[in-house]
Every structure is written in C-alpha cells, then in structure tokens.
Amino acid sequence: MVPNLRILIVDANQVRAAIIEEGLREAGYQQLVRLSATTGLVAAIETHDPDVVVIDLEDPSRDALADMFLVSRHVRRPITMFVDQSDSASIEAAVEAGVSAYIVDGLKKERMQPILQTCISRFNAFRKLREELDEARSQLEDRKTIDRAKGIVMRLKGLSEDEAYALMRRTAMNEKRKLVDIARSLITAAEMLK
C-alpha cells in the first residue's frame, strides 16, 4: 500500500464520489482531489498531478470513452473507471483508451484498495511492455540503418559484408561514436553525393 499517492476522483454523482472517497480514506489514502466533470480533465490532471485517476461514469458514452483515450495518451497515468452497465464494445474501447481497471457494477468502498492496487500494477506492466516494444523497434531501425550503410560501403569500397562492418565499427570506435551514428552519417553523405 502506498498511502501517499495523490488520487484524482472524477464523478458527477456526489453520492458515488463520496463512496469512492470514503473507501480510499479508509484504505489510508489522504491526498484526494475530487472533480465533478470530465470536461477539462487533461488540464485538471496537469494542475493536480495525480499518481492515479479514478473515474466513475456510471454509463459511459462513446464520447466519454474517446475523451478517456485522449486523456490516457496525453497524461500516461493509471486510470480506474467504474461503470454500472457495459457491453463488450465499451470494455474494448476502454482498454484501447488505456484504462487500467474497468470495473462494472463494483462500486463498493471496501473494494477500493485492491482495485487501486490492481490498476497500478496493470498500468506498470503495460508501461514496461510498451517500453520494451519501443526499445525493440528502435533496435530494429538501428539494425536496418547499419545494414543500409554497410551496403553503401560495400558498393563504394568493393568490400565484403564483414569487411564493411569492421571498417564502420573501427571508425565508430576511433571517433568515439555509436555505430548507428556512423551509419546515419554514411547514408546522409551518400544521399548528398547522388
């Protein structure tokens, strides 16, 4: 449990918001801010800088889910959403929007702690996967750049693939630069000399 988390509660229904707030306070969370509307949510999140966002939409419309998509892409925070009714399309849209926990008909104060922990854990797991995917994509792009530059060196200097790679690697070490940076420079130079 991390009771010093800053939590933003968004709920137009005062009774339901009070249930969320009471459950969070009983779980030890004291840094709570309550908003009564989703309009201006990105600005509110930037202002209050919460660690977690808890939203109760009762019956989310497609527009509300589209707003959540924009919010989650912009602010990258764990988001828990409570709804009374749902269908598979709404669940799918919420997950695509980046909602970490989508709770249907489960607004009970005693459930707030485990739901919040699940939301944060799921958000962190997805963030780690996203970072790993970005890293893998970056490495693949770097590999493609190096291979392209290697082809240029092979063609211009009449070297084998291994010799071209060794030359690029030596140059990178001598200049104290990354191999991919040397490759980019070679590609840029080759483009200029066409």
Return the average pLDDT rounded to an integer: 87
Question: Can you tell me the number of structural domains?
Answer: 2
Shape: elongated
Q: What's the alpha carbon Rg, rounded to whole Å?
A: 25 Å
Low-confidence stretches: none
| Biggest β-sheet strands, sense, barrel | 5 strands, parallel
Overview of the molecule:
The chain is α/β, with parallel strands linked by helices and 194 residues long. The protein folds into two domains: 6-107, 3-Layer(aba) Sandwich (Rossmann fold); 133-193, Orthogonal Bundle (Arc Repressor Mutant, subunit A). Helix content is 61%, strand content 14%. It has helices at 14-26, 41-48, 62-75, 88-96, 112-157, 161-174, 179-192; strands at residues 6-11, 31-35, 52-58, 79-83, 101-104. It has a five-stranded parallel beta sheet with strand order 2-1-3-4-5, sandwiched between helices. Helix 2 (41-48) packs parallel to helix 3 (62-75), helix 5 crosses helix 6 and helix 5 (112-157) crosses helix 7. The protein is elongated and about 75 Å long. It comes from Bosea lupini. This is Response regulator receiver and ANTAR domain protein.
